[in-house]
Model the fold of this input.
Amino acid sequence: MQNSELHRGVKVTYREGYLHITYPDDFVLLPEDINQLWLRLSAVCKSYNCNRVLNEGHLDLSKLRAFDSYNAGSQAGEIEGLRMACLFHGYEPDEKAAFFQTVASNRGAKVEFFLNPAEALKWLGVRERS
Done:
């Protein structure tokens, strides 16, 4: 299990069968972060030959606009076979999240939002972490 930093303290760790993204406490995702995060995630997915991702943390997504959701969804579709479970604690998926999912889906990526880690891992098709 190796940790890598994606961007601004965002970490990605390879676990058996999936990549686990974690964020610093109260991380504010800014529009200018999106391209860098997706480019680095794409590189990590390729290096581990892994397209299953648990994206987890306490995030503030309030700075993102509809265009940012489109941009993120488009970039998600650039990662071949991406299956991403989003587990953002305290976050209720909204219209921007639905738009992100739709754009990603239209480009071949599967993205779902979860409230429970066990459900997220089950959806990813991996064993629950211990």
About this structure: Residues 58 and 90 are 7 Å apart (CA to CA). The mean pLDDT is 91. Residues 34-48 form the longest helix (15 residues). Strands lie at 3-7, 10-15, 18-22, 27-28, 52-57, 59-60, 83-88, 110-113.
